[in-house]
């Protein structure tokens, strides 16, 4: 007999656990969480490279229902966040709902039974509702570089760190200067014989301003939860204020740019190196990075910056796009993730026989950054236009989960128990996003970024968290059709 639940959640990182918490709070207990790995944690379980940490303040990077007074500092380490998520799963008593080491193999909508049929290695299950909480920083992006697979030494992606390989005393090459590289390069520089850093595009980097919390501060947070709540509120306001500089406000962007340039000048004395590390695109066009030790590391004798991409590999020789050649004992790919083309989308088939990947062939689209036409009773967390470049993404996930729970109440009142997003609603929301993003640096700032796909902003929400909350609060259920879609024609939404 096939197992059945009301809600099947795919993924046990922040998004999946956040959805489970929302369901529990709403009194909906029939759900299962499918997780491909052996523990919860998502990206914070998978990323274990030296120096891995969050660049969102720790007291804002957690669930509102699960404040943690014990964070070690203003910015939590990756291991701490992983332990936090394991703690949340324990406190929420999700053990019997978690199906670990159970990857999604396929999910298809069964129109006859009005439910999702889900295949896993341990068997099939059905669910009335499917929640994709698979994240966007899960599948490493491996660049296509001639000869890369024939590199003579150890080679691995930063998100699949090989702890069995001892890099101390080795000549290590790092490809990429994004968020992961900015954290791991200073750590490698401390132990490696030398680090060669291949930089395709420099990043805007501002001071991190790390602040460790001492025992007295952590005790006070634990015994005075109102102080912890006040700190979280203050950090939230600070984060919302950062939106202006990231989104192109002239004065705010100029001020932030000056902070970044001063930070660079304070740590890099060599004018040629400083020029190589100075972006030539608008502040905010790419992800703004936080670091206090990256520039000092790159300016030190321990690191050589190659200001061009890795173009080819021949044995242990690395050929840069500039023509420069280097040798290395080991190669670390800090090259980001497959974020614009969500890998799970190929596994999900909607009511018209189209996969989610096919539906998103021209770039991800949705309504409310959460639901997709032709995929009934399905919710996507941290998918289209649900990411942030200025504040905590956990805040967005919580709003999406709350929207999903409200929709489930509406589903219960539907005659056939099916929520079908009207294509017009998805098209209108996509156009709304396009209008809001049209003049932002993400589209006009002169850089190539992972927020944009085929000329559209598909990953970032072009607004504040307050604006996202307000937008979801305005949804009234009219985005859903009252009768099933018909081939050859669609029901029109009421004007």
UniProtKB/TrEMBL annotation:
It comes from the Bacteria. Signal peptide: none annotated. InterPro entries: FAD-bind_Monooxygenase_sf, FAD/NAD-bd_sf. This is NAD(P)/FAD-dependent oxidoreductase. It comes from Microbacterium pullorum.
């Amino acid at each position: 007999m096939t197992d059945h639940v009301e809600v099947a959640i795919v993924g046990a990182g922040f998004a999946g656990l956040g959805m489970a918490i929302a369901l529990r709070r709403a009194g909906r207990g029939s759900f299962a969480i499918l997780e491909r790995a052996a523990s919860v944690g998502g990206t914070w379980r998978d990323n274990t490279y030296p120096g891995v940490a969050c660049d969102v303040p720790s007291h804002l990077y957690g669930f509102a229902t699960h404040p943690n007074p014990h964070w070690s500092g203003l910015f939590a380490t990756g291991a701490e966040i992983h332990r936090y998520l394991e703690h949340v799963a324990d406190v929420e008593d999700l053990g019997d709902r978690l199906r670990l080491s159970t990857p999604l193999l396929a999910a298809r909508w069964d129109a006859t039974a009005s439910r999702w049929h889900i295949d896993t290695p341990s068997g099939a299950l059905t669910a009335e509702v499917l929640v994709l909480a698979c994240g966007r920083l899960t599948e490493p992006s491996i660049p296509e570089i001639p000869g890369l697979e024939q590199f003579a030494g150890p080679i691995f992606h930063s998100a699949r760190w090989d702890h069995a390989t001892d890099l101390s005393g080795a000549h290590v090459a790092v490809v990429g200067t994004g968020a992961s590289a900015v954290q791991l390069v200073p750590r490698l520089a401390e132990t490696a014989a030398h680090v060669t850093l291949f930089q395709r595009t420099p990043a805007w980097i501002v001071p991190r301003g790390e602040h460790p919390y001492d025992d007295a501060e952590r005790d006070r947070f634990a015994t005075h939860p109102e102080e912890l709540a006040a700190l979280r509120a203050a950090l939230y306001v600070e984060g919302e204020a950062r939106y202006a500089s990231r989104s192109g406000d002239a004065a705010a962007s100029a001020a932030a740019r000056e902070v970044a340039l001063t930070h660079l000048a304070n740590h890099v004395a060599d004018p040629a190196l400083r020029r190589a590390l100075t972006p030539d695109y608008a502040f905010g066009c790419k992800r703004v990075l936080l670091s206090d030790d990256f520039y000092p590391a790159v300016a030190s004798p321990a690191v050589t910056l190659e200001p061009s991409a890795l173009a080819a590999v021949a044995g242990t020789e690395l050929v840069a796009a500039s023509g420069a050649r280097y040798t290395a004992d080991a190669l670390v790919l800090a090259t980001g993730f497959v974020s614009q083309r969500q890998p799970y989308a190929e596994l999900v088939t909607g009511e018209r026989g189209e996969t989610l990947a096919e539906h998103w062939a021209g770039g991800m689209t949705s309504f409310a950054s959460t639901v997709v036409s032709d995929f009934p009773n399905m919710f996507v967390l941290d998918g289209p236009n649900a990411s942030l470049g200025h504040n905590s993404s956990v805040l967005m996930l919580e709003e999406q989960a709350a929207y999903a729970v409200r929709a489930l109440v509406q589903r219960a009142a539907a005659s056939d128990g099916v929520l079908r997003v009207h294509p017009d609603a998805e098209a209108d929301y996509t156009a709304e996003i396009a209008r809001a993003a049209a003049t932002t640096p993400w589209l006009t700032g002169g850089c190539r970024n992972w927020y944009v796909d085929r000329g559209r902003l598909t990953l970032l929400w072009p607004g504040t968290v307050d604006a996202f909350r307000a937008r979801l609060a305005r949804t009234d259920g009219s985005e859903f059709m009252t009768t099933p879609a018909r081939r050859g024609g669609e029901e029109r939404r009421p004007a």
